[in-house]
């Protein structure tokens, strides 16, 4: 089956051919461009975030709170109850360390729940 011919970049001044999503490589949008940084989202600086991670790491002895992994260098600080679900951004009881494997699994679960909430709101807005 034939494919359609390449089109021009959607930027009005650009003569190049589009490579992805209607734009050339030079005019691709920056990922997460409109997303606020951590200081805006959580209301704290990166220095405060690092100090919280150090305190939680000492408290939990560098262990992942889901699987107990002790490889301290790779752990990330995580909100046990996500802020979007009512968790506190800087309460030590809501913070824990996660290994990369558990972090990926928990992030996927949270994204799924967030998408379900978004779909529920859309259905409610349509009156279903």
What does this protein structure show overall?
This protein is mostly helical. The chain has a domain at 45-126: 3-Layer(aba) Sandwich (His-Me finger endonuclease fold). The chain is 37% helix and 6% strand. It contains three helices and two strands. The protein has helices at residues 38-42, 46-60, 100-126; strands at 76-79, 95-98. Strands 1-2 form a two-stranded antiparallel sheet. It starts with 37 loop residues before the first helix and ends with a helix. The mean pLDDT is 88.
Task: Kindly summarize this structure in a few lines.
The protein is mainly alpha-helical and 128 residues long. It is built from three helices and two strands.
Count helical runs.
3
The N- to C-terminal Cα distance equals 40 Å
Please bin the fraction of helical residues.
Answer: 25-40%
Rounded to an integer in angstroms, the radius of gyration calculated over CA atoms is: 21 Å
Name the CATH architecture of the domain at 45-126. Answer: 3-Layer(aba) Sandwich
Which blocks of ≥5 consecutive residues have pLDDT under 50?
none
> Biggest β-sheet, characterized?
2 strands, antiparallel
State the assembly state of the protein chains.
Answer: single chain
| H and E string | HHEEH
Spatially, the strands of the biggest sheet line up as 1-2
CATH class of the domain at 45-126: Alpha Beta
Count all strands and give the number: 2
Q: Strand content of the residues, in percent? A: 5-15%
CATH level-four homologous superfamily name of the domain at 45-126: His-Me finger endonucleases
Structural class: mainly alpha
Q: Based on CA inertia axes, which overall geometry fits? A: elongated
């Amino acid at each position: 089956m034939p494919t359609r011919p390449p089109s021009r970049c959607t930027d009005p001044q650009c003569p190049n051919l589009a490579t992805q999503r209607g734009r050339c490589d030079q005019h691709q949008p920056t990922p997460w461009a409109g997303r606020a940084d951590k200081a805006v989202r959580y209301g704290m600086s990166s220095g405060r975030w690092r100090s919280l991670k150090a305190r939680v790491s000492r408290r939990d002895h560098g262990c992942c709170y889901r699987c107990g992994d002790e490889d301290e260098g790779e752990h990330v600080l995580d909100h046990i109850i996500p802020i979007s679900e009512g968790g506190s951004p800087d309460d030590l009881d809501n913070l824990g360390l996660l290994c990369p494997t558990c972090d990926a699994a928990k992030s996927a679960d949270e994204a799924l729940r967030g998408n379900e909430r978004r779909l529920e709101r859309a259905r409610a807005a349509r009156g279903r």
